[in-house]
Design brief:
Shape of chain A: elongated
Oligomer: heterodimer
Order of helices and strands of chain A: HHHHHHHHHHEEHEEEEEEEEE
Helix content of chain A: 25-40%
Low-confidence stretches of chain A: 24-63, 78-123
Helix content of chain B: 55-70%
Distance between the termini of chain A: 99 Å
Radius of gyration of chain A: 42 Å
Strand content of chain B: under 5%
Number of strands of chain B: 2
Chain lengths: 353, 441
């Protein structure tokens, strides 16, 4: 494993996952020894022993495991760490000699001198003995996922009350550490950079063009000629609207129903706006059922415009209507009257009959 | 256009014959596969018998007499297609499929279900009302979507059931077994597949464009809305939501919440399992929440909006004529009406005429106090309650902020079916209704 280039894809994956599971700082495949932090001369035995011990927990169960099983072990900690050895109870014993070279290989080549010291301290490089030492000793430093699970599981095993423990925060990998700000950046030079460079020129011209466009758009909103029907129009004499009638003649051009109906017991002629108060569709007048019904979401309104079914939250709106001097009814669409605001009592929005 | 049943049968007989022949071919291939590869002779014989039956049906259809759904069955299905039975029925169906997923995800069972649905569709197509809705060019993608969603849900469930079984036995998931598939080259593997897909998709689109007429309508008019007026098919779930909520909520706030919640998923999810392989047992909560949101609150609502909502946005059974004069009494009332008028037996608290804005607001709050209590209790009091009971372990693992975000999003999601049921069962329109300030919930 000393040469990453010779490893298969699956091996790299397994190594990377193992490294990840050990807190991100396990130097199993790292080309540089821990000497970077502490010079080799001063490397004390525990310091050097730490990297040497790191790769152990995984290769041991991985002795006879296939790549796929190692992958699985790395993914789901529980089945991998607990079930795999259980599935092969006889395996570890005869594998012990075969594992030793694996452990030796796993050590980084450059770390050899430091590792020798640890070997001297540990006495032997036999994998199983190191493993046993690692397992028994309450060693400091980061723990692997399987060990963390074991530690958490122990108090949880008590039958008294299940204790839920939040998982620990994962360590930040190196690439996610905050970087020190570059020294030559200066917020005082920002303005000068923005104004004095080609980029500043570009932004300035963009702002000018955008401003002109906005002005042009604003002008577009107020055309010279409006080809809309007049907002104030005559609909005929009151006698044309017999009691109980809903006149749909003016819906197509003006969006108005002229209705002669009772509201609060008072018969009156009103001009209802033909826009649903739910989402603005145009309802239909259903003569058979005597109601306005919206085809979009099923809102329904009584003849007087009061909502009674479907999602419409409020009644239809009224336009202003009045009896003109020539005796005809005149609708003024510039004024709206909303029932829920109590505006229907305004005499400008109905003509009593 | 409404055609007579006889004329309709004559129209669709040939097409249905081709449909049944295709079905028979599909099943004969399946029978061959089962016999040769799976070595299940009994199943193969059953499939062959089914093929023979389909051949006879196809011959009858080609001869101008396609089999029809019995009128009694149609009437039962029409009656069952009410909003309450439809929603509860689809939910129960999905729950049954989920609980019995070990059985239903077996390939042969899934194959039988696919055949059953196709035969059901063939029988129903002989009905002119059903055909006029399902066969509408607008709705073809939705029919395709039903089968595609079914297929992909089956595929994922099938793999997940296998993986969960392997996990129980201590084996790694299937995806980890195929380690030689871990690395695939872009060229030729990916680009080649994409090229084939591109060519196939283009061919399908061209055939589609040739065979089906574009569903063009009369020129648009600002004062004439088509009846029924339907959103694009993928927004029909939202349109259905608009029936139960104020437009501000169903059109702006809740859709934004859906998008925001989907973005938040990676930050809310603390379960690291299920990465790179299918599983249900290892992430039951995430799986269920997603499937409720997707299958139950999105797909079934699209199907509902497409096939069951007719003129005036009324409910129609799948074999029912879309009568634009169907009378349905849907009078609904607000919670404040129920409380003040029905329970207390008095009028709504109304501000005296000429009162100031603050006084009016005070009367509005008085009118809607029960709604405020319910909504605030639902969104504020329920999450801590759930944290202490059902979501105890999730609360500890997620921490306060993530838990509150998750639980509030979940509650808002569940509020939709709750409001639908309240509307249908109690004719309840809005819990808080303040039309004066465009605030309704």
């Amino acid at each position: 494993m000393a040469d990453p280039k010779k490893m298969s894809v699956a091996d790299i994956l397994a190594a990377a996952r193992k490294k990840d599971s050990q807190g991100g700082d396990a130097p199993a495949v790292k080309p540089e020894p821990p000497a970077e932090a502490a010079p080799p001369v001063e490397a004390s035995a525990p310091d050097a022993a730490a990297p040497a011990e790191k790769p152990k927990p995984k290769p041991a169960p991985a002795g006879k495991m296939s790549v796929a099983e190692m992958l699985a072990a790395a993914r789901g900690e529980k089945p991998g760490a607990a079930a795999a050895p259980a599935a092969k109870p006889a395996a570890p014993k005869p594998e012990a000699p075969a594992k030793a070279p694996v452990a030796a290989e796993a050590r980084p080549a450059a770390a050899k001198p430091a590792a020798k010291k640890s070997e001297a301290a540990a006495g032997t490089v036999d994998t199983s003995s190191i493993l046993a030492a690692a397992r028994t000793a309450a060693r400091p430093g980061p723990v692997s996922k399987s060990e963390a699970v074991a530690k958490v599981a122990e108090p949880a095993a008590k039958p008294a009350k299940e204790k839920i423990v939040a998982p620990p925060m994962p360590a930040k990998p190196v690439y996610a550490q905050p970087k020190a700000a570059a020294a030559d950046e200066d917020r005082r030079s920002f303005l000068a950079v923005m104004l004095g460079t080609a980029m500043g020129l570009g932004f300035a011209s963009m702002a000018v063009v955008g401003g002109l466009w906005s002005l042009a758009l604003a002008r577009f909103m107020f055309p010279n000629v409006l080809t809309e029907p007049p907002s104030r129009f005559k609909v005929g004499f009151p006698a044309n609207f017999p009691p109980g009638s809903v006149d749909e003649k003016f819906k197509a051009q003006f969006g108005v129903w002229v209705v002669n109906a009772e509201y609060n017991g008072q018969p009156q002629i009103v001009a209802l706006k033909s826009v649903c108060t739910h989402l603005g569709c145009t309802p239909n007048w259903l003569d058979g059922e005597q109601k306005f019904k919206c085809p979009c979401h099923g809102s329904g309104f009584y003849k007087d415009g009061i909502n009674f079914e479907g999602p419409a939250p409020r009644p239809l709106e009224r336009y202003a209507i009045r009896l003109a001097d020539d005796g005809q009814l005149e609708v003024d669409k510039s004024k709206l009257f909303q029932e829920e605001l109590g505006q229907w009592s305004d005499a400008a929005c109905f003509v009593p009959v | 256009m409404h055609v007579s049943p006889e004329a309709h049968l004559a129209n669709v007989a040939h097409g249905l014959g081709v449909f049944y022949i295709a079905l028979a071919l599909m099943n004969s291939i399946a029978a061959l596969y089962v016999w040769q590869r799976l070595k299940q002779t009994g199943t193969a014989i059953a499939l062959t018998a089914f093929v023979a039956l389909l051949a006879m049906v196809a011959a009858a259809a080609m001869g101008g007499m396609p089999p029809e759904m019995p009128a009694g069955v149609k009437a039962v299905i029409n009656n069952l297609s009410g909003p309450v039975t439809y929603t509860l029925g689809t939910t129960v169906l999905l729950v049954v499929l989920f609980v019995g997923r070990k059985f239903f995800s077996q390939p042969l069972v899934a194959w039988a279900m696919l055949n059953a649905s196709l035969v059901l569709m063939g029988l129903s197509m002989a009905d002119s009302n059903f055909f006029s809705i399902v066969g509408k060019p607008d709705n073809v993608p939705i029919v395709a979507m039903i089968f595609l969603v079914g297929y992909f849900t089956w595929l994922a469930t099938y793999r997940a059931v296998q993986n969960d079984e392997r996990d129980k036995q201590g084996l790694p998931p299937l995806e980890a077994m195929e380690d030689e598939k871990e690395k695939v080259l872009v060229w030729p593997d990916l680009v080649y597949t994409e090229l084939i897909c591109m060519v196939a998709l283009t061919a399908i689109l061209m055939i589609w464009a040739i065979l089906l007429q574009a569903p063009l309508e009369e020129p648009a008019s600002a004062v004439k809305t088509p009846n029924p007026s339907k959103a694009p098919w993928y927004f029909l779930g939202l349109q259905e939501m608009l029936v139960y909520y104020d437009p501000w909520w169903a059109g702006v706030v809740l859709p934004s919440m859906v998008i925001g919640g989907l973005i938040l998923i990676p930050f809310l999810d603390y379960n690291k399992k299920g990465n790179g392989y299918y599983t249900i047992a290892q992430r039951p909560f995430s799986y269920l929440v997603f499937q409720i949101g997707f299958l139950d609150l999105w797909i079934t609502l699209i199907v509902l909006g497409t096939f069951l909502r007719g003129p005036n946005w009324n409910f129609f059974g799948p074999y029912e004529f879309w009568d634009s004069h169907k009378v349905e009494a849907l009078n609904n009332i607000n919670l404040s009406d129920i409380f003040w008028i029905k329970v207390m037996g008095q009028g709504l608290p109304t501000a005296p005429t000429g009162a100031g804005a603050m006084m009016k607001l005070w009367y509005i709050l008085q009118r809607e106090w029960l709604g405020f209590v319910l909504v605030i209790g639902y969104l504020v009091a329920l999450p801590p309650l759930m944290a202490a009971t059902v979501f105890r372990s999730m609360f500890v693992k997620m921490g306060f902020i993530r838990y509150m975000l998750m639980s509030n999003l979940l509650l808002l999601m569940i509020a939709l079916p709750l409001k639908m049921v309240l509307r249908w069962s109690f004719n309840l329109k809005y819990i808080i209704s303040i039309p004066e300030y465009f605030l309704n919930f």
